[in-house]
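tl;dr need the bound structure. longer version: we got a ligand (magnesium ion) that a collaborator sent over and nobodys looked at where it sits. i said id run it. heres the input, straight from their email, havent touched it
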Amino acid sequence: MSLLTLNYITMVYNQGKPNAVKALSDVSLTIGAGEMVAVVGASGSGKSTLLHILGGLLRPTSGTYIAGDQTVSAHSPGQMARFRNEKIGFVLQDFGLLEERTVLENVSLPMLFSPKPMGNYADAVKSKLTLLDMEPYLNKRVSQLSGGQKQRVAVARALIMDPLVILADEPTGALDSANAIQLFELFRSLCNDGHTLVVATHDMDLAAQCDRVIRLADGRVSPAA
Ligand SMILES: Nc1ncnc2c1ncn2[C@@H]1O[C@H](COP(=O)(O)OP(=O)(O)OP(=O)(O)O)[C@@H](O)[C@H]1O
Ligand SMILES: [Mg+2]
């Protein structure tokens, strides 16, 4: 049973203008629940664009995107914002954390933007941090953490809304190789627990640890080598 389905997705930036760029062409793919999928390809091949469409940050120029029971490509901007908040956990290269705020404040942030009643914030945050061995750092400022610890905080924040899928765009770009390997081990354990993860990476060794590799070339999915 597929969790995410893209049908003939095309993405043109600045459509109709002289600076139009076709970033994705007729991309069709499905991702199943619990899969750990890598997206690889040269710089400019469309990896981030694909993740942004999966995450509801960008509306495709044409094609259909279905996530769970939602046709995201038909959503209004308000529906897209709610989809992002409730269904997507993002992990970014530069962590995307508020450096001068505590771990608790950072991880609970998505809950503040949700109209859903969320219960006790601190308990929810603690349970995610415990999962990632970061509970002792609850009240530390992010600026006092190492890079590997910061990325684990970002993963905790990505998990806090119990999303449909975790999207990670070059999440090891700011990590040394030991921390990069640890992050992928963490991703693997999350997928073994039923989470679904799509990760864009340049690192072929890390990509090889995923269940499946989607290779992009000039905005198209290229057949497996
Ligand atoms: N906001 C934008 N406006 C116009 N063109 C864009 C925009 N974002 C990306 N592009 C173009 O779309 C194409 C795909 O870019 P994208 O960022 O998806 O590639 P990528 O595979 O993530 O590259 P990298 O490995 O460097 O991160 C590139 O030609 C890029 O210049
Ligand atoms: Mg990119």
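gonna send this back to them w/ a short note. The domain at 2-214 is CATH 3.40.50.300 (Rossmann fold).
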